Every structure is written in C-alpha cells, then in structure tokens.
Sequence to fold (306 residues):
Amino acid sequence: MRNIFHQSLGTAASNSARCSIARTIIFVCCSLSIWFCGSAPGISAPRAQDTSSKATSVAKSKSTTKADSLGPNGKTGMWWSRESGWGISLTASADNGLLFAAIYIYDDQGIARWYTASNCRFTGNQCTSRMEETSGSPCAAPFSPGQVTRKDVGELSLNFASSAFGNLSFNINGVTRTVAIERFVFASGAAPSTDYSGLWWNPNESGNGVSITHLADTLFVAWYAFDTSGKPAWYVLTCSAFGTNSCSDTLYSASGPVLASTFDTSRVQLKTIGPATLTFSSSGNARITYLASGQTITKDFVRFVF
Fold:
C-alpha cells in the first residue's frame, strides 16, 4: 500500500515527514473539531446496532476546493477565526435543524480543554445553546461511565451569513467574545470514494468520542477524551489514506494560552504522544491503536448519527 508515512529512507521520507508535521501543526493551530456524548441535552443516543446502518457521509462534494460545497446544510465542518490555536467545529443533525458545537481552547495551566454546546437549534440563520464542561474516565484506563460529570459554563450563539462565513459569540466562565468565523478547508482534490467524515463514538463509553474530517486523501482526527486527572483533553492525528482503509502517523497533544478576550497564537505548542494507526473495517466502524508511555491502547468506535 502506498503511504508516505511508512517511507523511511531518502529525500521522500524527509519531505513527507516535514509535510506531515506541518499539516498537523496547521490542524492544531487552525482546525476545528468536535466532542460528543449520547446523553447530552438535545441529542438522543442511537442504539449501537442502529449506528452502522444509518451511517452516511458528511461531505458529499465532488471537490474540496469550494468551501460552500461542504456539509449537508453548509454548516457541518471545521471553522476558525484566523486566530491560530483555537477553533470550533459544527455538526448538523440528520434533519439539519440542530447543531452540535464544540470549542477547544486551553486552561490557565496551558492544558488543552474542550467545551460543548449540544442543543443549538436554528431559528432562521441563528442558533443559541448553553455550554458544558465534561469530566470523565481517564483515556488509558478502563472506562467508568460513573465518572462522567457535566458542568454548565456559559452560552454560545452562532449567526451565519452564508455556508462559509458567520459570527460566533460565547460566554465561557465569564469570558466573553464575539468573532467572525469561516469554514476551514485544509485540502483540495477529488472527494474520496469512501468518506469517513463525521462523529464517532463507543456507545459503552459515552463522553469519549472522535471527530473525523476527510478531504481529498487527507484525514484529520480529533479525539476528545479525558486526561489522567479526568479533565477534558483533546488529541490530534493527521494522515493520508491514499484510497486504503487505514493510515498511520503521530498522535499529538497541544498546549497554549488561557482563554481570554485576546489570544496569543505564538504560545501554541505540540507534544508528541506516540505513533497511532486509524483503521476502518467498514464505513461505520473504526479503530484507533496508539502507543503512549510504552503502553499500546486500542479504542473502537462507530458512527454517531443524531
């Protein structure tokens, strides 16, 4: 199988490694992703046996060069404010009347954190939802549903001028901002024959989820889980599948400046977690295997449709 991330010798390997790292930095600094939980307000958790049969592609465009062509209602996808290092991702419900939004940012210790707005229902071109911070079971440990807790932290509002541009207003723990946002298109080319874009979860591990965005031959994976203290943490992986059902690269975490009325992009940094492989056994079933601190960890996911 052709995979530049498996080339280990010569100029091609050096160039591909630099390209991979550069894409990951761009994704961490510019991309927008999502966490999801089946029991969150406004979203009914699908039964595990129904998830695969309902799986559908999020992106159906023939080309990824036009931002307006992405997403079922022009809203699903990754969005950013052109302040590299934080962002928001939006996922539309099956009836296109509800958005699930997640903002990723950093706490006062510089640690990556995420907040969710699970019930942003449209009135015209605008939606508003309460926001939550979720804590839970550490990623590397056996998942304990009883450890998942949620805390109200504020409110989010979105107003769209088009399928590519809009405005975001939020209040998170007393910090307020209103910024212009736009869709982030990170790759161009023909749409993949099997598009893995969408939300993924394990029905037995509500609170732990994955967002996958698949443009051309490139996949961006954002894993929303919990760190060793049970606090919300996100990890990212970018890789190229080249028509296969598997890809491998490096899993990263990020750190950056605390959420405030301004944002210092120069303080965003990446940290290597370890090698990771993403494999799809079907269009609705995925597995992530990664190495962290000498421990190999495997997580299985199915598509989440709400």
Notes: The helical segments are 10-30, 48-54. The first strand starts at residue 77 and ends at 80.
